[in-house]
Amino acid sequence: MPHPRPLDIVLHSASRILEVAFDNGERFRLPCEYLRVNSPSAEVQGHGPGQKVLVSGKRNVGITALEPTGHYGVLIRFDDGHASGIFGWDTLYDLGRAYDTAWPAYLAELDAKGLSR
User: Fold this and answer.
1) Which of 12, 27, 60, 77 has the most CB atoms within 10 Å of its CB?
2) What letter does residue 107 receive in the DSSP assignment?
3) pTM to 2 decimals?
4) What is the pLDDT of residues 71-117, one digit of tens each?
């Protein structure tokens, strides 16, 4: 079954939240930090299964620009200079659906490795 399509995307710069609404009625408020540490770029995801990098130190990262990329996603430019990896609409939807479990797991992994946000 295909993923829902986006209806609206709004950057709330002051709160560092990217809000994405989909045509199935779901709306996600995704922290910039969460998006940055889960970037679909090879720098974060690696070049194959099991190569994802644990990114730390991004607590205060923000987004400087959103650049639509065709009909399939958006390039997010972060204020730490990271601007590789296109966030497809499916990726943003999946990140939104996974947030409640993925974010605590990320925090636990940072803690286990003695790293900070």
Assistant:
1) 77
2) H
3) 0.94
4) 899 999 999 999 988 999 999 999 999 999 999 999 999 999 999 99
pLDDT (tens digit per residue) in 32-45: 999 999 999 988 98
Q: pLDDT band for 15, please (50, 70, 90 cuts).
A: very high
Query: DSSP for 1-57?
Result: -PPPPEEEEEEETTTTEEEEEETTS-EEEEEHHHHHHT--SHHHH-SSTT------S
Which tokens sit at 96?
């939104």
Cβ–Cβ < 8 Å for 93, 22:
yes
Instruction: Using DSSP bridges, classify how beta strands 6-12 and 27-31 pair: parallel, antiparallel or unpaired.
Output: unpaired
Question: What six digits make up the tokens of 40?
Answer: 């679909």
Half-sphere CA count of 43, side-chain side, radius 13 A? 11
Query: Torsion-angle region of residue 50: left (phi > 0), alpha (psi -120 to 50) or beta?
Result: left
Residue 39: which of 53, 21, 49 has the closest Cα?
53
